[in-house]
Every structure is written in C-alpha cells, then in structure tokens.
Amino acid sequence: MFSRYTRLLKPIPVGILLMLIAYVSVVTDFLRVSSHSKDRVMSIMTSLAPFDAMYPNSHELFTFVDIDDASLSAIGQWPWPRKTTSELVSQIFKSGAAVVGVDILFSEIDRLSLGNLSSQLNLKENQLKSLGVEDGDARLGAVVHGHPTVLSFALTADKAGVPAFKLPNRFVTVGEVSALIPQSNNIISPIKALGGAQGYGFVNIYKEQGVIRKTSLALKHHDILVPALGIELLRIAQGVKNHAIKTNDTYSGLTIKTGEVTSETDLNGSLLLHYGHMSRFHKVSANDVMKGKQSLTDKIVILGSSAKGLGDFHTTPLEDVVPGPLFHLQVMDQILNQRFINNNPLYEQLLFLSALLIGALLCFLIVRRSMALSLGLMLLALLALSGLTYWGFVFSHFLLNGLAAIGIVLTGFLGTYFSNSLIEAAAKREVMSKLESNELLTEVMERYADTGDIYHSLEQLTPQILSIIKADAGLFFTYHKEYQRFTCAFTQNASELKGLVVYNEIPVLHEVYQHQRPSNIGSQENATDLLQAMASTYHIEIGSVMTLPVSFGNEIFGCLQGIKKKTGKKINHFSQDDIGLFGSLANNLGIAIKNVELSNKVVLDKLLEKDLRDAELAQSMMFPDKASIEQISGGVLPYRMLSGDFIDYFKVGDRIAFIEGDVSGKGVPAAIMMSRCVSLFRIYAKMDLPADTIACRMNQELSESENDGRFVSLVLGWVDLVPMQITFVNCGHNPVISLSGSKLKTYGVTSPPIGIVGALEFIPQNQVLQLTSGDALFIATDGVTEAKIGSEELGVKGLARLVYPHQQDNAIDQFHKFYTYLTSGKLALHDDATLLIIKV
Q1: Cα separation of 326 and 230, whole Å?
Q2: How far is CA 7 from CA 364, 422, 436, in A?
Q3: Which of 216, 445, 554, 669 has a CA-to-CA distance to 1 between 20 and 30 Å?
Q4: Cα distances (Å, whole numbers) of residue 157 to 164, 188, 536, 702
C-alpha cells in the first residue's frame, strides 16, 4: 500500500512545486515574506560591511552637540528657557560651526516669555522690559535668523491643523513628482517668533518592527514639498536657494539636487539607511560648548539631546540605543558619500529566476546523480548567492534579496530530498519482494537487452542490488591478457577508482579469473594481509569483499566485486544469498558483454569506414580553392585519409592573409587540431590583426588547452600587393624559400612552434620582404622536403630546382605543375605533403 502511494510522489515535481510556491510568496510578498527577508538581508549586510568601514573618515565633517545629563545637571532641568537655548546656539556659531540643525521642536511659547510672565506677575510687558526682562523666543528668533540655522518640525497624518506660520516652498519640481510623495495633513511647526530661520526640516522617522530602516527626504504638506532636516542642512551649508526634484532616468526612483549634492531615493522619496556605528560621530557636551571649551570650526552641527529622561532613542540593525539626532548625521554622511542603496525590481526578479533554475538543477541531481554532488553544488550555489548579494551591496549599491533566493533553493532541495528518501525506502521493500520471487533477475535481462550498453545497464541496476546486499561499493574489472593487468571499467559509489590499473597487488582478482570461482573474504585472520593490500590500493577502509567471475561459456571477461567498508569495529560480511544475487548479476553481465561484442564488431567496421570517408571529405572542403586568387595557390596531399597539414588563404580588404602549418603526429587527433588552427586563423585574420599578434593569440589558445602534448609548426602572414610586400612569422616551420630571378634565399624560424610554450615565453618576430614583380615565395612542409627521389631527399634546393623552370608562370599554374609531379610517383612520399606558392 505504501509503495502504491509513493509512486504518485515524484521527487523532482514535488521539489519544483514547492519552489514555485516559495517563488510566488516572495514575488507577491505574501505574508510580507519578501519584506521581512529583505530587512534581514539589509541587517546582515550592514553587520558585515558597516558604513564606517567603507567610509572611515567621512564623519569628521559632523559634530553632535549633546544636551546630555551632565548639561542638564549643570544648566538646569529641561526645558531650558529660550534665552539659554539662544545662548547655546550663539556659542556654537562662535565656536566656528558652519551650519547648525536644531533637533528640538519649539512648538510652544517659552514658559518664561514676556506674555507668560506678564500674566503670572500681573505686570505689563513694557514694565517687564523696563526691568530688563528679555523675551527668550524673540532672542532665539533673532539668532536663527542671523545665522545659518535649520529648525525642525514634524508632520503628522492627524486632522488638518493650522501651523504657526506658512513654511516656505524650497522645492523646484520637474514633472509630476509631487503626486508620488506621501501627504501629511498636519504640521507641528515652531512658534511664530521663530518664523525667520534660514531653513526648516522635518524630523519624522519610520519604524518597522522597532527598527529605523529608511527615512524620507521629502514629504508633501498640502500643496508644497518640504525637506528633511538633513538635506535642508546641506542646502543651507552650500548657500543655495532651493532643492530640485525629479524622477531618475530609469523611473525607478527620485533624484534630489541640492546645490552640488545629489540624493537618490525610491519613488516615495525615502532613503534606505546604510548604518555605520554611530559612535564614529564626534559628540560634545552642550555644557562644554557653553563654556567655550570646544572648537567647532567648519563643522555641520546637530543640536539635540541624548539625556535619558527625554527618551529620544531609537534602534538600528547595528545598535539598540541610538540618540535621535545622530540619524540626521547618518543621512548627511550617506548623501555626501553618494551611498544610495538601490532596490531594482528587475535585478531582483532575475535573482529569483536564477534561484529557481539552480533549485531545479539540484532537484534533478538529488534524484539522478548523487546526494553528495547535489549537496556540494547546493553549498556552492548558496555561497554564490550570498557572495552576489554581498558584492551587489558593497560594490554596486544594490540590495538584492539573497535570503529569499536562498530560501527558494533550499525549499526545492529539501522538498526533493525528503520525498526522494520516502520513495527509496518504498523501492527497497519492493526490490526485496521481487528478489524473493526471482522477478528482479528477469528485469536485469530486460535492461541489458534494451540499453545495449552493458555499463549503462549496470549503472541502472547495481544500486538496487547493492542496497539489498548492503554493499558500499561495486567494481567491475576487465582483464587485458597482453599486459596481464586488470582495469576498473565500472564503479558504483567509488567513482575515484574508475580507471584504476591493478597488476599483482590484488591476488584474489587473478585467482578468481583463472579458476572462475567466486571468493568471499571477510575479516578473518588469514585475510588480514589481503584486505590491507586492497585497502592500500583502493584507498578505502575495507571490511569485507566478494569477487565473482564475469564470463560466457569458456570465455571470461573480468571480475565483479562487492565491497563493504570498515566502519569502526563492526563488520557485516556477505552472506551466501548475497553471493547468489551478485552472481546472477555477473552472469547476466557476461551474456551482455558477449552479445555486445558480436554486434558491435559488425557495426563498428562499417561505421568506422564511413566516418573516415566523411572526415576526409569534410577536411578537403576546409582548404581554399587552388584557383581562387591569382597571386597565391597551394594544396595538401594527405599521406593517409586524414591530414595533419593545412593551408588557408583569403582576401581581407586589399590584402591576402595566408597560413601553412603542420600538426605533430598523425591521424584523427592531428586532423582535429589542424581544423582548430584553421578556424582560429580565420577568426583573427578577419580582425585584420598583425601576423605576430595572430600567432600569439593562436599560441595562447592552444597552449592553455589540453592538446595531448601536440604542437604546430606554421608560417602565417599577409601579402600586400601595393606596395609589393610580404609580412610573415615562421613558428618552428621549414624555411621560407624566396626565388627572385636566379637568386635563392631562405628565411628561418622566428619563434618556437605553436602550443609548446606559454604566452609569456612566446614572442614571435615579424619578417618583412620587399618584392619586385616576378618574385615568388615557396612554403613547404617536411613531407615535401623529405620526399625522396631515389635514395636522396628532395630538400630545399631540390624544391627550388623543380619550380625554377616555371617561374614565369603565375602561382596557380606553378602549383598545378608541382602537384602533378607529386602525384606522378616520381617522388616517394612518407608524410603529408603541402606546398604554398606566392607569386607577385
């Protein structure tokens, strides 16, 4: 019953379905999954790369003048008389401050104002003035009017009220920006006596789960936009009149221009805060400032309080208790360093889609490959997603929701893993049932017949049988009589042993092979030395081994081994039933090998013959038409069906690019490397690169790739018809022969062959030949110069004697006559013969 239901539980679809559910939850922000994970990512990134670690000296421009507990003890309880506050602000400017932002809401008249004292003392205001009583509000208003000061106010969504005075409009808007900014109905503004300050900025903050993660730089009050305290301070510090605000070029956020400073926000005008440790900001006590003990020369100053009784404290991802005024310094520090964390939805969607693809791949690997591989790749993927998130945050100013992407991957991985585990348990029970009814042996036969690939069939069936007999690994060794050695042709759960060559290290293999009898070796005392030898050869701790012959009739092909590893002191030995089941597998494997041998022999002979003919035709089509260009001609005469020699030439603009080369070795590997050289040359020549540069790039490609120790000797270059000039490099090739009238001259190598040395050691030198009309160049492989006339090699001079009588002919006719001579049988060829002729 359990097995019947688990057939409906497909691990890969289950994993992918769970990933899609996680993906939709993240994309739609269902139950704020995306928002919470993104907040968590921001907190993690801030902890790993705090702002002050990236910008260690930027905070030196700012100072926090703190109305701290010591100041309250020395000067008096809060609220202070406005006269005292005005003296403090005046003293800040006397200490050299460039601009001051006051993070205090003066929304009520001073308790010691003339109006309050008049009603309390029953005296007229004029009488109080005559007694020397000064209006603190008026005095503070005069100070902030005469100095670069920004006062604070607060916006609320409460029922609309009437502020003490109308705030000035400091924004110039471009487009319909104001429609994007949140609206606030009410304002808590300073009193009317303070309506002459040079700037006003709101101090609203937004908390999410008790943490301030972002702050608005602009909000809307009725028909105007009002600035935050931080950017208003930057405006006053620069002495500019307004802020300019518009949507950015991608319409994904807003750009606020404040003099020479630009701020980037989201479409609601909010700045995502990248916190540093707030202790980096210089803090001075208001009491010390009042006494003139502090220098604030050219500082941007925030005046506020960290006194415990005033309760202006908030939480950041880095710190639990931060005085409110420091948040404004954080905002300005970010803006001046142009540190704006973008949240591009397109990049985030690409990240989530990538996570889906990675998760789908892992779902496939868990089921179709191995748990170890999928687990390793999953860890690698998680590291990559984490690294991408970190890189995007630190270097590209992007906040990627890597945590949500990791969640998508893990959802698919774990869903597939657990569903696959359930299915494997059911499958094991089902296989045991088939074993008892001999049904499994029939399936073994059918699988061999269907696949036609004995090792593939073994890969499909062995895991089931290894699971039943509780073996940790399975190995199949083929025997090579000519070398008297075994080679591990197939492994299950021991891939590192595939290809292992064994001579006499494991005697049991030879014994089973020679006597064709199974062997079952456990941890008996007489088997200790053998087990140690096998463990040393296989590099695994072995507790028990059974070895069976794989044969068909009297013909034996190799040995099949089952291994149980040694784990601690407990060793489970193979039973006779285990040997019987494993023996059935060995017998079927022997039958399959024999059948494959017989059928493959017939098919292989036919396929090989056809493939060689097709390859020969394809290779000949790679060479240029011998009569395509009047000034150059050449060809290859293969010694066998496939050639390692090659030529190519074609026009690039008004010039002719040419190459002739010889790949070391013969046969199919040389032909493959030859085709790669031709392809590389065509690519780089059509880029109109100099000859030495083309050679360098070809050498880099071939030397950095696995080429089985092969190298290429070649000559390549350019023919300029006006003026008549040839530029070439000779990379370990035969000498280039120049024939001008009766004068013969050769030009040797200018660098090693291609593919022998690395890029730093490969420095070819261009050779430039100035030609006159009638001059000719001959470039031949050693198949030509080493061809024999009788018992003597042709050589360079012999080649010159053959072509000299035809020097009046053009390149096409000369090559035709030489090719006819090559194929006439007068020359005894022992290698591919290739000749390239250039005649101007």
Answers
A1: 10
A2: 17, 10, 21
A3: 445
A4: 17, 11, 79, 71
Average pLDDT over the chain reads 85
What is residue 343's three-state secondary structure?
coil
Burial class (CB in 10 A: 0-12, 13-18, 19+), 612: middle
pLDDT of res. 3: 45
The closest alpha carbon to 547, from 513, 583, 519, belongs to: 519
The two three-digit tokens of residue 148, written as one number: 């670069």
Distances (CA, A) of 638 to 667, 676, 774: 10, 18, 30
* Cα 673 to Cα 679: distance, rounded to the nearest angstrom: 10
Separation of first and last alpha carbons in the chain: 88
Residue 414: CB partners within 8 Å, gap ≥ 6? none
Tell me: the pLDDT tens digits for 362-376? 888 887 776 778 888
Average pLDDT over residues 483-511: 86
pLDDT at 612: 62
What H or E segment, with its residue span, contains residue 35? helix 33-48
- Residue 534's nearest CA partner among 578, 504, 572, 557 is 504
Closest CA to 819 of 647, 634, 619, 625: 634
Under a CB-based contact definition with an 8 Å cutoff, are residues 340 and 270 in contact? no
pLDDT of residue 432: 56
Instruction: Please indicate, yes or no, whether residues 285 and 347 belong to a single structural domain of this protein.
Output: no
Percent of the chain surpassing pLDDT 70: 86
Whether residue 424 is contained in a domain is answered as yes
Last residue of one domain, picked from the residues 429, 449, 481: 429
How far apart CA 719 and CA 698 sit, in angstroms, is: 20
Show the tokens assigned to 188: 């808590």
- Extended strands (E) in 721-824: 725-731, 736-740, 743-747, 767-770, 776-780, 788-789, 792-793
**CATH number of the domain where residue 648 is located:** 3.60.40.10
CA angle 52, 56, 60 (to 5 degrees): 100
Tell me if 192 sits within 8 A of 137, measured CB to CB: no
Alpha-carbon distance of 561 to 542, in angstroms, equals 12
Q: Confidence class of residue 6 from pLDDT cuts 50, 70 and 90?
A: very low
Residues 6+ apart with CB under 8 A from 480: 486, 487
In order, the DSSP letters of 474-521 are: EEEEEEETTTTEEEEEEEES-GGGTT-EESSS-HHHHHHHHH---EEE
**CB neighbours of residue 563 within 10 Å:** 26
538 and 492 in a single domain? The answer is yes
Name the residue among 685, 692, 697, 687 with its Cα closest to residue 624: 685
**Tokens (6 digits) for 605:** 């002979």
Same domain flag for 140 and 160? yes
Query: 645 and 539, same structural domain?
Result: no
Check: CB of residue 301 under 8 Å from CB of residue 19. no
318 shares a domain with 241: yes
Scanning the structure block, which residue is given the tokens 């096998």? 534
By the 8 A CB rule, do 716 and 681 touch? Answer: yes
551/660 same-domain check:
no
> pLDDT-derived band of residue 609, with 50, 70 and 90 as boundaries?
low
Does residue 709 form part of some domain?
A: yes
Q: What is the 3-state secondary structure (H, E, C) of 399-410?
A: CCCHHHHHHHHH
Cα 798 to Cα 534: distance, rounded to the nearest angstrom: 63
Residue 539 domain-assigned? yes
d(CA 675, CA 685): 15
Identify the DSSP state of 28: T
Hey, what are 381's tokens? 């993927």
- Which of 405, 429, 453 terminates a domain? The answer is 429
Q: What is the mean pLDDT of residues 260-268?
A: 94
Its domain, for residue 730, covers: 623-839
Q: Is the pTM of this model over 0.85?
A: no
In a domain? residue 601: no
Cα torsion 233, 238, 244, 250: sign:
negative
DSSP 8-state class, residue 103: -
